[in-house]
Structures are given as C-alpha cells and as structure tokens.
Specification:
Elements (H helix, E strand, L loop, with lengths): L25 E3 L5 E5 L6 H13 L5 E6 L6 E7 L2 E6 L6 H14 L12
Amino acid sequence: PGRGRSPASTPPDGDTPTVQRWIAWRLLAGNGWEIARSADVFPDRPSGRSAVVALTSAIDSAEWTTTRGIRPDAWSWEMTLDGVLVAVSSRFYKLQRECESAVRTFLTVLPVALLPREWSS
C-alpha cells in the first residue's frame, strides 16, 4: 500500500526480524486496473473490511489532496478521513488533472463497489 507494509518485528534477542502477516485492500475497475489502495495494512480480514466499510459510509466527509512526486511529471493523490490517511492513488499520473480525475473516479466507484466473497465473513 501507499505507506508500505508495517515494519517487520525484531525479536528481543536481536536476531533476524520476522515478517508478520498482513492484509491490505485495493479497489479494482472491471478491467482489473487498480484504482486505489489502502494507505495502511491491517492484521486480518475483519480489520481490513471494517476500514473499507468505514470509508465507504463516510466518503462524503473524506478529504483528498494531490501532490507532486519526486519528479515534476509525477502526481499522486491521497485521502484522509478525520485527519487519518486512509486511501492513496495506486500509481503516479503525468498531469495533475489526470490525477484529479482518478480521485473523482474513486469517489464515484467506491460506494457501489462489491467486497470479495471471502471478506463477507
């Protein structure tokens, strides 16, 4: 996801870090292209599902911004809900208006998106 996976935990003896299991969500278009992804990772499916449901129900109060990447032709967007980063663009865009169009697509599609069957439990 946008900010990346949670850092691996280091055992108390300072040995090699262990990788923890995690889950993240992605919103895909009908053609399989990724529209957006979670800004954070979650420890399990119920936590990830809760985050998607919370974002979907509060999408009208979410705030988004576009930012320029490390290159002048690299734009991305991120979305916050109550000051917490919750969603990010899945890629960089060459033009700011393309980036803004992509976030508007996300705002339109998320409320009608279907959760995968395995997330319904």
